[in-house]
Every structure is written in C-alpha cells, then in structure tokens.
Amino acid sequence: MSEGHSSSYDRLKSKKSLAEILDVAIEFERTARDFYTDLIPKVSKQIRYLVEELAEEEQRHFDLFTELKNRPDLEKQVQTLVEIPASDKKFSDAIHLPELGDRPDDQSVLQYALGREHAAMEQYHALAESTGDGPIKELFQFLANEETEHKNQLEKVYYETIHSGGV
Amino acid sequence: MSKPIDDAKLSKQNVTIEHEEAGSILSPLKALQFFMRKPVTVPLEPRPAADNYRGFHLNDHEKCIGCSSCQKVCDNAAITMVKVPHLPEDPINGVRNLRPAIDYGRCCWCALCVDICPTSAISLSREYVHTCTQEEIDSYFILPDETGIHGEYYGEGWQKTNDSDLLDLNRQPMAELEAEERIDNFNEIVAGYTDQQAVIEASRCVQCGMCHDACPTHMDAPEYIRSIWQGNLEDAVRWIYQSNPFSHVCGRVCTHRCEDACSIGRRGEPVSIRWLKRYAMDSVDHERIKQIAAEGKADYLSGKQIAIIGAGPAGLTTAYDLVRKGHQVTVFEARKEAGGMPRYGIPEYRLPYDMLDQDIDVITSMGVKIQTGIQVGKDITMAQLEADYDAVVLAIGLHLGRSTRVPGADHKQVRKAIDLLRRTTDDEAYEIPQKAVVIGGGNVAMDIARTLARQQQQQFGQVQVTVTALEEMSNFLADPVEIKECREEGIEIYDARGPQACIIKNNKLIGLKTWKVRSIFDEQGRFAPEYDEQDEQIHAADMVIEAIGQMSDNNLLGDDLTEALEWQRGRLSIDGQGRTSVDWLWAAGDCVNGPDVVHAIADGHRVAASIDEWLNQQ
Amino acid sequence: MRPENYEAQRQPPSNEYELNFGPNHPGIEGNYALKVKLHGDIVLEAKADGGYLHRGFEKLMEQRLWIQNIALVPRICVPDPSPMELCYSMAVEELCGLKVPQRAQWLRVMQLELSRIAAHLFTFGGHAATTGMYSTMYWGVADRDLLLDLFEEFTGGRVYSIYNIPGGVRRELPEGFLQRLTETLDYIESRLPDYDNLFFKNQVFVKRAKGTGVMSREQALEWGVTGPNLRATGLAFDVRRDDPYLVYDQLAFDIPVEESGDAWARTLVRRKELMESIRILRQVVEILPDIHGPIRAPIPNPLAWNVPAGETYTRVESSKGELCYYVVSNGGPKPYRVHVRGPSSMHAVQVLEKMSVGSRIEDIAQTMFSLDACPPEVDR
Questions:
Q1: Residue of A nearest to B555 (CA)
Q2: A76 touches chain B (CB under 8 A)
Q3: Residue B180 in contact with residue B60, Cβ under 8 Å?
Q4: Mind listing the pLDDT tens digit for each residue in A77-110?
Q5: Domain housing B603
Q6: Using the beta-carbon criterion (under 8 Å), do A107 and B403 form an inter-chain contact?
Q7: Which of A113, A161, A115, A155 is nearest to B548 (CA)?
Q8: Is residue C326 within 8 angstroms of chain B, CB to CB?
C-alpha cells in the first residue's frame, strides 16, 4: 500500500478545492493502473486479457482527468472550494489495495475492480449532488458517468464469465 | 356400393308437363317487353371482388420465413422460391431470405399455398386484373409482397382460417411418469413415442429443413422424419448417423434448436424432432445400429495416431469421425467412465446411462480406444502426447463449478452442483441435506435440485429443496419443462433473488440470505443487477449448492503450453476449424464454445475434418 | 419426277364428301370435332374426335399429391365442375375412412345444386344458339353470372370453386349468404316464364327439336346413357335418389321424366330439373342454419399423406349424368390410378356418332347440345 493513497484519502474527507479533488482522482486512476499493470505478468495467460483491459481503461481515465485539470476554461474554477460529502466507506475501501495473492483468478480481479468502480461512481455522484448547478457539477457528473459506464462493462464481463450462460 | 334399383322407382312418373303444348308462335315476342326496361350497364372499373375471393397473391414479407411449403403444395409448380438479399437470413430462428415468386401462367388460384402456409404470411387478394404487352410477357412471373403484385392494395381475399388450415398444430402427447411415480427414484421420466404416435408426429413435418439449418451439427432431420413416417426406421438411423453419433443422448437431452426453428412452431407446437430421433434410435436393434454406423468406414489404416483428451460428446465425436477415416485414436478420460458431461452432469431420470453406454459402444465398436482414469497433466503430460501422437485434441469440457464468493461461501456445507452430480454418478456417498438451497436458474441448478429431491425422498420421505435465481421467471435460463417438473416434484423456486451471504452460526451453516432483484439487466441489456435491500429473505438450509456457472480446468496444459497458446477472453483461441495457435493441438466442445451437447458434437465433426485434412496434406 | 409426266389417278365420281365439323365451329361444344361423311346434307357416317386440348387428366392425377388433385379435377368439366371435386373427395374419404361432418354435407349439396342450375342455364344458352336464338344464350349466360357471384362469395372462385377437400369443405358461409341465395333463387324462378316464352315454347325451337336425335330407352341403356338424356326416354333413374350420397335422402325432390327420347324431351327434362334444384336449395336454406359443427374432418398434413391401399368407386349425379371416379391407392402419397367415368364420353362419342347418321348436317349441333356433352370429360 503506497503512501499516496492514505494521504489522498485524508484530503478527500475535508472541504477541498476542485484542483485538489482532481488531483486525488488522477492519483486514484494512476495507482489503479499501476496495480493492474503489476498483475499482468502474474496472472495466468488465460485471464491476462482481463487485467490488461483494466489497466488500459484506467490509463484512459488517467489521461482524461489529467487533460481536464489542465483545461484553460477550468483554470479559474479550480480554486473553488467544494463541500465534500460524508466520507464514503466504500470509496475508502476501494482505495486500499487488496491482497489478491500471487496468482489471483479472474473472479477475484473482477470482484475487486467492480467494488472499486462502484465506490468511485458513488463518490462522484455524491460530489455532484452537493455542488450547485454549474460547470463543476457537470464535471462531477461527467466523472460519475465515466465510472458508471466502466462498472457496467465490468458487470457484463462478470456475468458472462462467472454465470456462464445458463449451464 | 350401389344398391339394386327399385323397380317401382324406375317406372315413369307422371309429372304434369306444362310445356306439352308449345306456346303460341307469338310468345317469343313477349321478350320485346324488355325494350321498355332500363338497360343493365356495368361500370368499366373492375368490380370489387368478394371477401373470400382468390385473386393475386399477397405475401407479408415480415411474416414469411421462406420455408417453401407453398412451393411444395403448389399443384402446378407455379411457385419458385427466390432469394431476396435485403431480407434477414437467420437460420437459428428459422428464417430464410427466400420468398415465393409466382408464375401466373401456371397458377390456378386454388389457394392451397394459403391453407398450408405455416406462418399465415401468404394470402390471396381481391385483385384480379393483370395485362401486359408482348414485350412485357415476362411480367407474369411476379414476387408479391404485402401490397400485392402491382404495389396497389386491393384488400385481403382468401385468407387462412381455422377451417381451411391444413397443418396439424398440436404435437402428439408424450407419456411421462407422474410426479409421485418419479420422486423417489431415478427412472426415466419420458416414455417415448409408440409406433403410431411417431408416425403421426412425423407426418406433421412440412420438410422445410429449418431444423437442419438451425442444428449446430446440421442433422438431416427432414430426411429421418420422412423415413420414420415411411416406417423405414433403419433408414432413419442411417440418416441420423450421417451427422450424430450421440443420438441416444441427443434424442433425450438435446437443447433442440431444431424445434425452436421449426416452421410449424410459428403458429403451433413444433414437431417433436427430438423425441422422433429417440424413437428411431430406440426402435432399431443395437447390433443393427452398429452395422449401420460402420457403413462407409475406411477399410485401410492411415497409420496416423491421434490423442483426444476427454471422452465426452466432443472428444468421442472427433474420435468417431477420425476412426471412420482410417486413423487410430486413443481417448484419455480422467474419470472412471467415458461419457463426459452427459454422464457426470445429467441425472439418470433424464438420460439413463445405459443409453449413453449404447452410444459409446457404437463408437468403440468402430475401433476407438478409450483409456479411463488417466489424468493428462498428471499421469501423462501434454509434452508426451505431443511427442507420441500426430495430433492432439483438447475436449475437456467445463468441470469446475464457479462460486458466488458471497460471505460464507467458503463453508464446507456450501457445495458446487457439478461436484455433487459427479458424486451421484460415481456412487460416492455424501451427506444428503435435509434442507437444501440451490443458487442458480439454469438447467444444472434444476438437475441438482431434482437429484437432491429424489435422494431426500428416499432418505427422509420428504422433499425440502429451494432454488433461488437472479433471473426473473420469464428470463429463466432453464428449460421451461424443467421448471414445471421441478415444481411438480415439490421443489420451491424463488426467482429474482440475489444471494448476499451464507449465514453461519456456531460454525454451522443455517441458511442463505438473499435480496430481491429489482432488475437484472439495464436498458442496453447488460448485466447490472439492482437489489431491493428491504426485501430480504433467509432461506433455511443445511447445505447451499452453487450452480451458477462452470469453467474448464486448464491446469493440465502446464505453464509453458499455457504461455505458448493464444487465448481469447479466457478461452482457448481457436480458428474456424477448432485449431489452436499451436499446430498439433485442436480444441473442441464446451471448453471452447460453452455448454451444449449438440454444439460439442458439431465441434467434434469440424475438428475431425480439420485434422484429417491436415494429416492428409502431410 | 415431275407430276405432269405421270398419269393422274382420278377418284371415281361420287357425291359423298367428308367434312370436319369442329373443332373451330360455332356449332360445336368446346374443343371437339366430328369427322362427318356426307351425301348432300345427309350424314352417312360420323367419327368423334376428342381433340388435343383437354387430355391426360387421369395421368396427371397420378403425378400429384392426393390434395393437389382437388385443384385439377374441376377442370375436367368446365361448365359443371363441382361434382368433379365432390366425387374425387368422396373417393379419398372412402379410402381413408374419413367421416364428413353433417354441415359439410349440406354445404356440398348446396354447391352441387347451384352448379347444376348454372350448368343448365349455360346449356340452354348454347342449345338455343345452335338454332339461331342468341337472345336466349345472352340471357342464360347473364343469369348464370348471378350464380357465379354466389360461388365467388362462398367459395372464392367463380368457375372453379375448389371448395371441396377430402374430409369436408374449405369455408364457412359468409354472413347473410343464405339471404342472398334466396334472393337469387327468387329471381331465377321469376325468369323461367321469360325463358319459356323465348325458348321452350318457341315454335322455331320446338319444331326443330322434336324428332331430332331420337333414342329409345333400350338404346339408351345399351349405350350407357345416363342423366337427363336417360330420363328423357322415360326411365326415372337418378343417383341422388337411387344411390343417395350426402344428405339427398333427407331432401324432397322429384325426378322429371319425358317419354319421346328426342332433343326436345332432353331439353325439357333439364328445364324441369331447374325447378327441382331450386326446390332442393330452398330446403337447404331452411335446414342449414340448424346444422352446426365443423365443416371438415381432421385430415393429415397434405405433404405427408399416404392414403391406405385399396380401391373405390364413387358416383354422383352431375348435370350431365352419372359421374363416377374409380380411384386406386397403393398406400402412397399419390393416387396409383384414377379413372373418371364421365357421362359425356358415352354421350359425345357412341351416342352422337350413331344419332348423327341419317340426320341433316345442321342438326348435328342441336343433337350434341341436347346431349349436353362436355368435351374435356371425353378425353380426360
């Protein structure tokens, strides 16, 4: 478990500037990407596609969020302070990297990824809820949608893999 | 027939004939009165025809499936089926992009095409005028659509009615054991058709061949049904063995895509193709079946050796085909007996194992060698197989059960359905639970629930089995018949229940906690379960059985081979012929294509053909 | 090799000559011909020629599924197709042991009698035309059209109704049909006096028809004559009464006979039969609403229908006489052999050939029409 994670968790608990929130989000995606990337050589080749896809997806989010933060039209607003909703236990759980063992199977990886996407989705939803109308709310809604979309994809994979089509 | 003619009746009758005297010579002139009447004039426009009129054809292209029954019944060979490329071609659902085109130089407007049409797509209109000049003489050959032959709708004329329908929409009933007769034993439930029933059922077929197209292994169902109807059962078996060496099995437990595609099923009950196959197989003597199966077997040996891992339908079908082509085949089976999932996954009340034995006996009688109790990866390695054989086929099925991994799922009384079914087949004792809860809504869930119900009845005199499934009843993955029979046997089924935890008190399993599933798929049809946490239930149990999904045990491949092979989303990557990325290894059956016995057989044929082709090239 | 180098061989002088009467002749019924040898106007010898248009029905039937033949058989007799369908269907029903529901039997009677009226109107028209009275022909054909309207309404086809199917009939009656049937019957009945004035009592016709084409009852029986032609010799024989089929034994009707056996008597019998058919139809209108139930017995899938092996002979009274089907099945999906014994093959071949001899050439047409022969039925 890296240092960066506990500190970002602490920061999320209080009232923060938008810039800070985006930093945490970017960090969140980066650590996840690294986590999955580390898993690639460890898992059996049979399920390697799963962690590869997850790593790719996180990379995509990482790029997207970084780009958002650097967008000139948001520059003025990044210092706005945002009310952080009551700490979300699930989100914090997700930020802690789990012990999946040396050779995790597809189901463990999927369950972890699902939990993590779910927590992120709820967190961004809550942030959007507690923010007044405007570009910042839209930004959070956008983030929430991104995570929801990814979670839906993963759930489909989970159903197809684990509930193998009506045996 | 004819009665003797009564003499009295033959005598002439004295009917008064008012015309005896011819009328006056002037009487014809009385017709002159008609000059005073208003003349009858008929308008030049075509007169509207009667509601029943048999005019030019209408054909609802959406409804029409291109089965060509109209063509077959046509008295004058006026109908030609033509390909209409922009229409859907969907063999799985029994739809072809053929539509009837009609030669109005031949059509006699008898409307038999309407009366036989399985879909009731075709009808006759009230349109009756069609002319053309010399140059357009070909315009008598027309593809009608729902507006008619000139694109101008004149209204429906002769349509199919219940009175005129020429098809029998009801199948012959199948005799089955009642719930109380079957609940304490594993006797086969379905009795099979009698001779008379089989002939009547076979006569319902219109020979459209939708079944053939939909069947994964493309069985010649129209041909064997026709043979059954003609009473030539050996011929039926001959047609069956063209494409399926597991017909005792498929005649009982096939997923019958054929019946789903059957055109009679559009408005009625599809032809019982599966039971007819079973009837033909059961009616012909086993030794005779062996002779029929051996017809056309190569009378030479190619000298090539093939190893097949797994003696299930896929592996043994591959073996059967290869042996017929003169190759030598050894099948390695890890379990005590050959048969694969039909033996170790399907309970005997659905498939008596001696019928499976007969199928396997036909295959071994052809020269296939089966070594049981040999675990590849342990008793013999893949590397050895590669060295000793010209080709290797992986047909290992899906023998590992998936777990929900909800909290408590690692308790020892939480079992996998596939393990219990295997133990039941192998007569390995396990403690029968008094109260069992099954997680899963597929056929395996039903199999284990009904197996446990029988064992409970035998041991405790009562059934206490509960099935919980994520899916709603309308989306159940299990066969509707299975669900119906489950209920008859006293098994409770709870649909739309999501397992949350196995409840354990003092180290003892006491039940399963479920939440109501509000919805299981989102608008795009993706899996996205939403639970109603308020609607919580505890299903009491001293055993929870997970029957949610299965996977193949690929550990036998070893790390090096696993790395060397290409994979496609968790499954071995194969080409269209079933060959893996390693040139000596093919894969077939459930382990690459998912669970389905008839698919496995189709795979077996494909792989055998590919191997044979490859060996011949060498 | 030029002909002028040879001596011409002359025929011995003779006033006998040969004529082809038909097949393209306004006085011949359908596609049919008589080769006649004449001395002046007097026929010395006549040879019937069935032509080449309608032939091979029996053979065609062996090539078709049992059910497909219902679309073929009506074509054997165009003016009166309904008895063809019925007789064939009865044969198949008998071979299969099919029991035809009551309602279907009543509907069949209705169809047959309508067909008889239509056929007779057609024949009168033709017959009148042979004596130059075209108005009668126009009337007959126009009034027949009203019956065809009824056929169109309840069978879907004006001429070839293809209404029967082994086991029963193909359609229920449309709403209000019996009312329209009654109206049409009333109209036809009201027209009969007009026909009488214009044709049946017309001295031109009576003088020409009386004494033309005479046969005795003995001759008729010897030549296999049936139907109105037989009844015109004084023998009251009608299959409907003497070997009842369908529900004819439950219907009241008389069998008109005439004594003289000539063209006049034959025409008169038909004229009287019109009234009897109307009478039968009125009874059907009365009774049919009380007969309920199915209109067809269940039959097998027509594409997989093996009729049990066996043979049968069915007969019905068509407008032209006794129509019979001899059907043999070898247990297969198609008939093994079908023989159609239509009345016209007797009437138009042996009877017409014999009757023509000694008559004047202009009477051939009248004789043929008074026999009401139907050429496709000859060369079936």
A1: A44
A2: no
A3: no
A4: 766 666 666 544 455 455 555 667 777 888 888 8
A5: 298-398+559-617
A6: yes
A7: A161
A8: no
Q: Which residues in A lie closer than 8 A to residue B569 (C-beta atoms)? A: 49
- From chain C residues 156-175, the ones with a CB under 8 A of any chain B CB are 156-157, 160, 162, 170-172, 174
Read off the CATH number of the domain in which B386 is found: 3.50.50.60
Within-domain flag for B109:
yes
Longest dimension (CA), chain A: 56
Query: Which residue of chain C is at minimal alpha-carbon distance from B75?
Result: C68
Upstream peptide bond of C298 is cis (omega within 30 degrees of 0) = no
| pLDDT at residue B9 in the model | 39
Domain total of chain C: 1
Domain with C204, as residue range(s), is 59-166+174-210+292-339
Q: Mean pLDDT of residues grouped by 10 in chain B (618 residues)?
A: 39 42 74 84 85 94 95 94 95 95 93 95 93 75 90 91 92 93 94 95 95 96 96 96 95 94 96 97 96 94 95 96 96 95 95 96 96 94 95 93 88 93 92 94 93 95 94 87 94 93 93 90 71 91 92 88 88 91 94 90 96 92
Same structural domain, B533 and B581: no
Would you call B30 an interface residue with chain C, using a CB distance cutoff of 8 Å? Answer: yes
> Domains in chain A: how many in total?
1
CATH number, position C318: 1.10.645.10
Nearest residue in A to B558, CA atom: A44
Sequence-ordered alpha helix ranges (H) in B69-122:
69-73, 112-116
Residue B436 lies in a domain: yes
Q: Which residues of B touch A160 (CB under 8 A)?
A: 527
Residue B198 lies in a domain: yes
CB contact, 8 Å: B65 with chain C?
Answer: no
- Does any CB of chain A come closer than 8 Å to the CB of residue B408? no
First vs last Cα of chain A: how many Å apart? 39
pTM for this model (two decimals)? 0.86
Name residue, tokens 């056309």. Answer: B296
Structure confidence at residue B22 (pLDDT) = 62
Domain harbouring A77, CATH code: 1.20.1260.10
Q: Is residue B4 part of a domain?
A: no
Beta-bridged to residue B531, according to DSSP, are B517
φ/ψ region of B151 (left if φ > 0, alpha if ψ in -120 to 50, else beta) reads: left
Residue in B6, B7, B11, B13 to test binding to C, most C beta-carbons within 10 Å: B13
Q: What average pLDDT does the structure give for chain A? A: 75
CB A146 within 8 A of CB A138: no
Nearest to B527 among A45, A50, A159 (CB): A159
Chain A contact set for B398 (CB, 8 A) = 164, 167
Instruction: Report d(CA B469, CA B489) in Å as an integer.
Output: 18
Give the H or E element holding residue A13: helix A3-13
C210-263 tens-digit pLDDT? 888 999 999 999 999 999 999 999 999 999 999 999 999 999 999 999 999 999
Question: Between residues 206 and 245 of chain B, which touch chain C (CB distance below 8 Å)?
Answer: 206-207, 226, 229
CA distance B131 to B114: 24
The pLDDT of residue C127 is above 60: yes
Nearest-Cα distance to chain C for B175, in Å, is 22
**3-state DSSP assignment of residue C322:** strand
The answer to which of A71-75, B151-155, B349-353, C281-285 has the lowest mean pLDDT is A71-75
Distance from CA of C344 to the nearest CA of B (A): 21
Q: pLDDT (tens digit, 9 = 90+) per residue, C142-175?
A: 999 999 999 999 999 999 999 999 999 999 999 9
Domain that includes residue A141, residue range? 3-162
**Interval A54-58 mean pLDDT:** 89
A167: in domain: no
